[in-house]
Amino acid sequence: MGSVRWAFRCGSWSPSRAEWLYAARCVQREEKERIGQFVFARDAKSAMAGRLLLRKLVCERIGVPWSEIRLGRSPRGKPYLVLPEVGSYKSSSSSVSEFFRIMTRQFTEYEWSVIQSAGSERQQLAAFYRHWQDS
Question: 3-state secondary structure string, the chain?
Fold first, then answer.
């Protein structure tokens, strides 16, 4: 699988009240509350579209069921995927390696060597998130 590139025209998206409420039900409560704090509708729409697309990526490309996707934010505001215990999904090994492949351009070769030398997948994910939060 190659890289993923999706485009969404937030400016031309005019959701009805029912559509907006449906979109809000598709994200976590924390995400919904954060999106609800935007002053301008265009900012809220952009944030909602971004979160929905991020969830779509995790669901389709990494294989985490939509209802089990948990996203968090680092202290610097970067989004991250809260992964369940390794082994919770039948293809967890390929899911972690696929996740790393998708994120390849986020770190230098040296940083990836540090991450991948951490040991188990769980330890590698912990190393990944330490690097992610520090960058």
Answer: CCCCCCCCCHHHCCCCHHHHHHHHHCCCHHHHHHHHCCCCHHHHHHHHHHHHHHHHHHHHHHCCCHHHCCEEECCCCCEEECCCCCCCCCCHHHHHHHHHHHCHHHCCHHHHHHHHCCCCHHHHHHHHHHHHHHC
pTM over 0.85: no
Along the chain (135 residues), what's the average pLDDT of each consecutive run of 10 residues? 75 92 93 94 93 87 81 80 53 64 82 86 80 70
